[in-house]
């Protein structure tokens, strides 16, 4: 069970407190979107879950186990970075295989896992190409493939579509929803885009100034906003 609990998370950078007592329980296989304006603390919160940043206070619990002190690679979590994090000189195959090479996986098992990921992402006929020969959407899929091969229980996405054009963003939203169904994994997706949040999420966390304004389904937020901020934010897509 890949439930993800954020218990009482606070974070300060020096004197500046950027996260205030964040308490959230995310269900196994749920697709949860963190949404809020720029600077509200979304990336910091995701980095704390991933173990790339240390919380000033609080605990991260995955599948009932406290991982607050665990190394990022031992948390069963994978963070998907934007497509420009690919290695331009390596083939698609080697880009996807990279974490498995680092883990010194036997070649046969490595090939099997990369093949599986490529099939899920419809990249099977692109494996010998270099990232520069791919479209933006295909490059994004390679970045996701690199996460899939590690078989994480929880996927984290930090604004993965923000450098794609509007049409491609729409396609990728649909692809990510399909991927969520295929992989049966818990996913946390960060965006400042209300439309993305409303169309993709099982439940949405609205963040403002480092605090949770509301945690609920898109319909709950739309029909029963907990604050003026939520009403304005959900009501006014940019
Ligand atoms: P978001 O992803 O929602 O745009 P961030 O999590 O990046 O927000 O930032 C939240 C706040 O924390 C901002 O005020 C930002 O300036 C501050 N912040 C983020 N990282 C650091 C850091 N390493 N040092 C100091 N302040 C930081
Ligand atoms: Mg951010």
TrEMBL record:
Belongs to the ABC transporter superfamily. GO terms for molecular function: ABC-type maltose transporter activity; ATP binding; ATP hydrolysis activity. Residues 4-234 form the ABC transporter domain. The lineage of its organism: Bacteria, Pseudomonadati, Pseudomonadota, Alphaproteobacteria, Rhodobacterales. It comes from the Bacteria. This is ABC transporter domain-containing protein. One of its GO terms (cellular component) is maltose transport complex. Keywords: ATP-binding, Cell inner membrane, Cell membrane, Membrane, Nucleotide-binding, Transport.
């Amino acid at each position: 069970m890949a439930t993800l609990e954020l218990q009482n998370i606070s974070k300060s950078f020096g004197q500046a407190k950027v996260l205030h007592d964040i308490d959230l329980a995310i269900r196994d296989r749920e697709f949860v979107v963190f949404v809020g304006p720029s600077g509200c603390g979304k990336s910091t919160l995701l980095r704390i879950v991933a173990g790339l940043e240390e919380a000033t206070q609080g605990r991260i619990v995955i599948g009932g186990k406290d991982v607050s002190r665990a190394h990022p690679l031992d948390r069963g979590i994978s963070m998907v970075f934007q497509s420009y994090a690919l290695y331009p000189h390596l083939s698609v195959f080697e880009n996807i295989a990279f974490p498995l090479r680092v883990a010194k996986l036997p070649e046969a098992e490595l090939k099997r896992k990369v093949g599986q990921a490529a099939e899920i992402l419809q990249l099977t006929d692109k494996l010998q190409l270099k990232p520069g020969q791919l479209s933006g959407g295909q490059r994004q899929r390679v970045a996701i493939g690199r996460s899939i091969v590690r078989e994480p229980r929880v996927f984290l996405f930090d604004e993965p579509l923000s450098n794609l054009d509007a049409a491609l963003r729409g396609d990728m939203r649909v692809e990510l929803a399909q991927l969520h169904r295929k992989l049966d994994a818990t996913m946390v997706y960060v965006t400042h885009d209300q439309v993305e949040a409303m169309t993709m999420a099982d439940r949405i966390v609205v963040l403002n100034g480092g605090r949770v304004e509301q945690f609920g389904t898109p319909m709950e937020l739309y029909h029963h906003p907990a604050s003026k901020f939520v009403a304005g934010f959900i009501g006014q897509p940019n």
